[in-house]
Amino acid sequence: MRILLSDGSGVTSRQCATVLSRAGHHVEVLSPDPLCLCAFTRHVRRVHRVPFYGADPYGWLETATGVYRKGGFDVLLPTQEQVAVLARERGAGTATVVPPFAALAAVQDKVSAHATLARLGVPQPDSAVVRDLAEWDGYPAYVKRPIGTASSGVRRLAGPGERLDGPWAGEPELLVQREVEGPLAMVQSVFDGGSQVAFHACLRVREGARGGAGHKLGVALPEVREHVRALGEGLGWHGALSADVVLGADGPVFIDVNPRLVEPVNALLSGVDLVTPLLDLALGRPVLPQPAGTPGVRTHQVLLALLGAAARGRGAVLAELVDAVLRRGSYEGGTEELTPGYDPRAMALVAAAAGATLVRPGAWRWFTSGSVSAYALEPDGWRAIADPARDDQPNRSRIAGSEVRTNPSEA
């Protein structure tokens, strides 16, 4: 099949490209940056330029659907936050897999997600929605903007004396959560109309650049699986649903919900295929439930680990390189997720990152700065998508002056 990924900048897209290409599919991606992460792999045939998604999701959608139609693609697979506008427009005439928009809106922003988790009985840290941090007295804590991706949307506060400025100061509401100590689990699931058909969990053993997982360990978390099942069932979810969970002393607590797929390779190596069910759902084919994964599978992402080490200095980069080459320490018994097998372009990127950060450790910021900005949804963009006026267009959506079909029967 010809498959178009909605993003070419993120780690999830890079992993999906490898999984799909190795399964025999033709893979192309969308990105505002021609030198995005997915450009550096033999598993992606072409990068199509699109507008930045964040503030102009409908500009992105117009270009994306044009690429999809012109290229004769079979599936447009959302691998990042573009799922929001695709859900709002019910696929915009493409073969894709998205949840009902009401379900997505219930978890898309952090304030709404907090209310949804509470309503469905999914455990969270001690939390509150505040207008002023003076209303909160439990520290250390994490403060979160309603719309914000990765480091742009979350800050740790050690105590009440710290202040927020810039875009944070203009937010009418903030979610504050008391810090919970414990390992972080990344959990992923796929739902077919509210029915859970796949689940996987892995621990972030070591942190990489900007909070990403440099090293992972597959685990069995039946209690967490049931909480995710209750969340997806309660929302009538369709497609991929992921979450970050802290395994605290008093039990698991959910600290983030992502209405999309997250990094599927550890799951695949553990025996859980998260990608094939999404293709089946996009094409309207029957979906076979996936078996439970085999715990204990270790994986790593050398690129993220190196960039994360660079934040600690040149010595840390050198130590990380030596461990990776000798396959010792946290690399022992593990499998590479981003650059498995022979992939000259991918290996060249890792070599460039290693060389640059050995010369100048601060270069890690350059390598990571563009990835999130390429796909992150901004507050103005979310307001445009969620605008109730769009409900007056039940069968069609006007996008930049042209009509895009949104009823699958019209496509």
Task: Write up what this structure looks like.
The chain has 411 residues and is an alpha+beta fold. It folds into 4 domains: 1-96, NAD(P)-binding Rossmann-like Domain (Rossmann fold); 104-109 and 182-298, D-amino Acid Aminotransferase, Chain A, domain 1 (2-Layer Sandwich), CATH 3.30.470.20; 126-178, no CATH class; 303-362, no CATH class. Helices cover 33% and strands 23% of the residues. It is built from 13 helices and 17 strands. It has helices at 11-22, 57-71, 83-88, 101-108, 110-119, 222-235, 265-269, 275-282, 302-310, 314-326, 344-359, 364-375, 379-386, and strands spanning 2-5, 26-31, 46-49, 75-77, 127-130, 141-144, 154-157, 174-178, 184-192, 195-207, 213-219, 239-248, 251-258, 298-300, 335-336, 396-399, 402-405. The strands form 4 sheets. Strands 13-12-9-10-11-14-15 form a 7-stranded mixed β-sheet. A 4-stranded parallel β-sheet has the order 3-2-1-4, sandwiched between helices. A hairpin with a 2-residue loop joins strand 12 (239-248) and strand 13. The longest helix is centred in the last third of the chain and has 16 residues, at 344-359. It is globular, with a radius of gyration of 21 Å. The protein starts with a strand and ends in a 6-residue tail after the last strand. 50% of the residues are buried. Residues 395-411 have low confidence and may be disordered.
What overall form do the CA principal axes indicate? Answer: globular
Radius of gyration: 21 Å
Helix content: 25-40%
Name of the level-1 CATH class of the largest domain: Alpha Beta
* Average pLDDT, all residues: 90
Q: Note the main sheet.
A: 7 strands, mixed
List the domain count as a whole number. Answer: 4
The H/E string reads: EHEEHEHHHEEEEEEEHEEHHEHHEHHHEE
| Helical/strand content category | alpha+beta
- The name of the CATH superfamily of the largest domain reads ATP-grasp fold, B domain
Question: Approximately what portion of the residues adopt beta-strand conformation?
Answer: 15-25%
How many extended strands?
A: 17
Architecture of the largest domain, CATH level 2? 2-Layer Sandwich
Distance between the termini: 18 Å
Q: Can you tell me the residue ranges where pLDDT is under 50 for at least 5 consecutive residues?
A: 395-411
Number of helices: 13
Strand order of the largest sheet: 13-12-9-10-11-14-15
| CATH fold title of the largest domain | D-amino Acid Aminotransferase, Chain A, domain 1
